Amino acid sequence: MPQDETRASTAHESTLFARLPAALAAALKAPAYATHLAGIDPASVTDRAALARLPVLRKGEMPARQREALPFGGFVPGAAGAFPRLFTSPGPIFEPQRAGEDPWGGAPALAAAGFRAGEVVLNTFGYHLTPGGFIFDTAARALGCAVIPAGPGNTEQQLDLIEAYRPAGYVGTPDFLKVLLDAGRTAGRDVSSIVKALVSGAAFPPSLQAEFRERGIAACQAYATADVGFIAYETPGEPGLLVSDGLILEIVRPGTGDPVPEGDVGEIVVTVLDLDRPLIRYALGDLTAALPGGTRIRGWMGRADQAAKVKGMFVRPEQVAEIARRHPELGRLRLVVTRADEADVMTLRAEAGTTDAALAEAVAETLRAVTKLRGTVALVAPGSLPNDGKVIADERPVG
Prior knowledge:
The chain has helices at residues 3-27, 31-36, 48-52, 62-68, 107-112, 132-142, 155-165, 174-187, 206-214, 317-326, 357-371, and strands spanning 57-58, 86-89, 93-96, 120-123, 146-149, 169-172, 196-199, 218-225, 229-234, 241-243, 247-252, 266-272, 279-288, 296-297, 308-310, 313-315, 333-340, 343-351, 376-380, 392-394. It has 399 residues and is an alpha/beta fold. An eight-stranded mixed sheet has the order 5-4-6-7-8-9-10-14, with helices on both faces. The longest helix is centred in the first third of the chain and has 25 residues, at 3-27. The radius of gyration is 23 Å and the shape is globular.
């Protein structure tokens, strides 16, 4: 990064970590967090090393945790009635809306995508029970835009709305924008007012990006979730996605809370510094990698949940991470599951600076002890395994 950008990044990092102790103290007022973070002194957690020593809370655990103590599992300091809106997302996961005019932090993403005050925005994210529609609605209104709360579907009615209100911008999935454009072209409807878009919630491949450009639409993408809000967003002309303000993003080895080296693919963990709805080391289950400088990420790169059922037993990324902990002399690990002679076969491919048979045998014994299953170990050259965050590769044929 340029020197001035580096200084700005360092100052921003310092500001975030100066706010972290207050967020931790707020979280400890919630009974489940008080247990989860027992013994933590908030005042001592003021840098990334200290934060990395705290336990992660996995999004995948939240449905079960919430069922034990409805509605929020004891992870929210306030009562449900203290929040302006209450939602449910698939899982189900029950979520409160934070306070403020832009509670999910989306206005900067819309501004970066070219949205301006006084413009009309067509919002095709859903408004029913899930927060998606409201996340983008509040962001656009905070920016000074007028919002058409269209929601998804009803293509014919959407075309009527476009011709009537002439929205300059679209927010929704990239897929549905293509549906609208194609339907408008087929029906001879005028959808030319849409010249910008902020898309999320689905893959946005280069081919579709190019198609939108050809149709005169400047489309940017954002990475957001229902519980966190905006995590990162595209800024035109810059690589990757810019990490949103107001949260601390870490990238850890899947199944652990251990940060990976810069540039390695790992699982996204976020800490949200909101005193009414703090989230502390919240593991989202999504993969990404940091770009140089730490303020940008490569975007969504798949899921970190790579559990595989082998010979009737689940093998999980946490177990592969445990093998790595017991053998620090190894580099990246990848457990490959295949089929041979109508039986499951496990091979642990491990980067090592040696092909010593004794080391391979010791790692194989650790593999058996940790997973309760037998498998072989193949020691491979350092740097030879893909940097894609995958620690379990299920290569068994489907069907």
